[in-house]
Structure formats: structure tokens, C-alpha cells
Amino acid sequence: MAARLGSVADLIWGTASQDAEIVRRWLQGMSSAAAGRFGFEFHDAEPSALVQHAGGPCGVIAPVQAFLLKHLIYPEGKATVPGGWRTPKDQYGALVSALTTMLLQAAMAPSSPAKDAPVVWPAAGVTVVTAPLDAGDQTLDDFHQHAQIAVLHDQDMIEPHLLSLQASLQHPFAVVALVYSLVLTRGTERLAEDMGVEQDSLISAPFGHCNQALLNLALTGTAVPNVWDGDNDMGGLALRGLPRRSTIGYLTLLESLRYCTCGSYFKNPEFPIWVLGSETHFTLLFSLDSRLVVQDSPRQHASTVFDRHDANANGFLMPEQLPALLDELQLLMEDNEARTRLVSALDRDGLGIVLKPQFLAHFYKAEGENGTPEQFVVYHYNGIAQPGSVVRFVRGQAKAESPTDVGATDVMRILWSKWTKLQVQWDQSPRVT
Fold first, then answer.
1. Catalytic residue among 53, 58, 210, 262
2. Is 186 a member of any domain?
């Protein structure tokens, strides 16, 4: 057992495994062992909210919280909202359902973005790593030595097996055990295929944060290192993005800083639940209004694809970039002469560039915000409470109105990456750090 866990330790930790402080921060509840509060812990004041004790594992805890809420608010995938989602009778059962979903995704998610990629139950099955029951274990070597591994070849056995592990899921190493379970279930060969050329450790030094590949593995079952739709060719290198629409979404502050752009697979997930990424932390936004997750219209899809080709976010492309854009959008031109005429039509001012508004207007009709309701309620979750406060779902009343930069907060800058017209009146100020 120790050898198998140790074989993936470098992939997971890299040099971070040598930093005792980083490992300590990933031990959920070790500092509060005397109180008997460990692992995946629910807050007394918000019974369906998980608690994070220290910085580091938020990139795993936030996805678990997202899938937990998905099972509470949208049971069996139905867009219905049962009462009592904030006071569940069976917190542990909802947690187990969330973990089961995440492991099944890792087992079955395709690496290829091909639309016809089959969903196949792998012969290797699902690997569940169980944290040791001895709460005195405080090092990775302890964990590798004493953790148990179960390989399940029947999908129907995963949830019953996890239900039998309540004590282990309340162990300080429970979050770490989930990371190992996801990695071993995905398998090193498929992880290498997911990550492509960008194969860094999943937990990075010097701060012990999850990298994008680990967050994506937890959210989608694939450890691709980027946030766009599909693969991007960069000088002959295939930079891997999401192969399909995600169940849970992701929005990031880095988009407002123009470091990246999330694709429609993350911005329009199957359920109105999004992990929010700041520069140092992951939190959560969710809603009970399923109208917030509609598929992109052709114009919105074209806008996303245009932005991907516009790597420097200039708002325009050079004429020589147009053929690749047209091919990806399946806007076929008869020949090079037809493309030359198109460039002339789009560049009436003779600037030698193709502006995004002119391109979209030429091929697509103008449209609104694609069905976004005028008003809706959202909730924000942060697993780390401020000193003297508790973990709470913060309610916000959202309106589709033009925003103002005056007093803009990081959480609003993140939300504007999806809803360009949005203002939110919060019951109290949410934090994304």
C-alpha cells in the first residue's frame, strides 16, 4: 500500500511534500483534535457548509461543497428545490453522494474533447484511499504507511463503501485521502494525457495551493491545466482545455486581470453552482434559479472563440488569423478570394485588422443576455471564517443592471466575467480571500 501511494506522491506534492507547514495546513482539523473535529467538518451555524481550517486545500474543499449542494438542491439532477437544504437531515449522506460523483467523474470522464467520446467504465475501476484511524499520524510517511486502499469494480459499490467510512472521513487526512483517490482513480497515464505538456505537481510550493489541474480534476474528473473549451494549438503544442460542459462551473478573478478567459463549458455548467477563484483562495457562488445556466447562443460561442484567437485581448485579429477562426466556427468560405472580400467588408476603415464587434455583427444577429432573468438570488460560501465570525451562506439579491466600478469588490469583478450587466445587494460583504 505504501509503495502505491508513494508512487504518486511526487505528482501530487512535488517539493511541497518537504514543507511540514504545507502538509500541516492540509490536515483538516489537526489543530482542533482535542475537540474531536476532523476532516470533512460541517459548521454548527450552517449545517450544510463545510469548514476549512487553514489555507491550502480550498481547491478540493470548494468542489466537494459544490457537489454537496448540487445533491441537496438538485437531487437526482432535477431542477427542483426541496425545502430544508440548509438544514439537511443527512449531512453525511449528502457528502458521500458528492464524493461518489467526483470519483465516478475521474473514472469515466473522456480526455478527448471529441463530441462522440464514449463514456466507458474503466477496467481499473475506482480507487478509494481511506485515511488511517490513528489521529496521531501527522506526516505523509505516516499516511502512506497506514492508509488503506480499496479498488471497486462495481459502480454500485462506491456509495455503500463510502457510507461505511464515516470515521475515516472525519480524520485530519480525509481531504488528502480524497486527492489520492482522485489521482489513483484517474490513473497516471490518463493524468499525463489530460495535462499534456504542462505537467507540474498538483499541489505547488511555496504556499501549498492547488494548481488548476487539481481543481479541474476535482470539478470535472479531468486534470487539464487550462480553463478554456477544448484544446488550443500553440505553435504545434496542444494546450489542453475542458473536453465538455462541466457539472459545476468556475469563474476567476484572473479573467478580469486578463491572465485567462474561462470558456463556456465553465461559465455555463449544468447547474447554477460556480467555484470562484481569487489569486489565493477558492470560494463558491450558487443559486436556486436554474435559468442562470443556459447554453451559449451561436453569437456568444463565436465571441468566446474569437477571444481565444485574440490571445492578447486586443479586441481584434489580424487578417491572417481569420481563416483559423472561420474554420473553427465552421463559417466556410469558397476560396481565398472570398476570404479577401470578407476582410475588405469587415475592415471598411482600412486599418488592417478585423474588429470583434464588426465580425460578430456580420455573421450573427444582435441579442440580449441569453435569457438571464432580470432579478435572481445568489448565495456565496467561504469555508474559512473571519476571526470572531462563523461560516455562513451569504445571500445576495442580484439585478441585471449596468455595473459601476465605484467601490467594486473582487467578488463582483469575478461575476462580471460571466454577467456583464450585474449588480448585487449582499446581506453582508462576501470575501473571496
1. 58
2. yes
Query: What is the mean pLDDT of each successive set of 10 residues along the chain, which is 433 residues long?
Result: 84 92 83 59 94 93 98 82 81 95 93 61 85 69 90 92 90 94 95 89 92 98 95 81 96 94 94 97 96 80 83 83 86 76 82 88 70 89 88 95 76 94 93 92
For 75, other C-beta atoms within 10 Å of its C-beta total 14
Q: Are 263 and 322 in the same domain? A: no
Instruction: Tell me which of 71, 144, 209, 281 is the catalytic residue.
Output: 281
Instruction: Show the DSSP H helices in 222-297 as ranges.
Output: 253-256, 264-267
Model pLDDT, residue 32: 46
Nearest-angstrom CA–CA distance, 161 and 126: 11
pTM of the model: 0.86
The answer to whether the beta carbons of residues 422 and 398 sit under 8 Å apart is yes
- Whether the link from the prior residue into 206 is cis, omega within 30° of 0, is yes
| Domain coverage including residue 310 | 298-363
Q: How far apart are CA 343 and CA 337, in angstroms?
A: 10
Give yes or no: residues 228 and 313 share one domain: no
Closest of 25, 64, 14, 59 to residue 41, by C-alpha: 64
Residue 347 sits in the same domain as residue 234:
no
Q: Which of 319, 342, 363 is the last residue of a domain?
A: 363
The total number of structural domains that make up the chain: 3
Which value, in Å, is the radius of gyration of the alpha carbons in the chain? 23
CA angle 268, 273, 277 (to 5 degrees): 90
Tell whether 106 and 23 lie within a shared domain.
Answer: yes
Question: 282 and 304 share a domain?
Answer: no
Distances (CA, A) of 2 to 5, 147, 149, 247, 350: 5, 8, 10, 33, 66
Strand runs labelled E in 232-329: 232-234, 237-239, 249-252, 273-277, 282-287, 316-317
Q: 350: domain CATH number?
A: 1.10.238.10
281 a catalytic residue: yes
- Closest by CA position to 359, among listed 331, 381, 391, 387: 331
The answer to whether 260 is a known catalytic residue is no
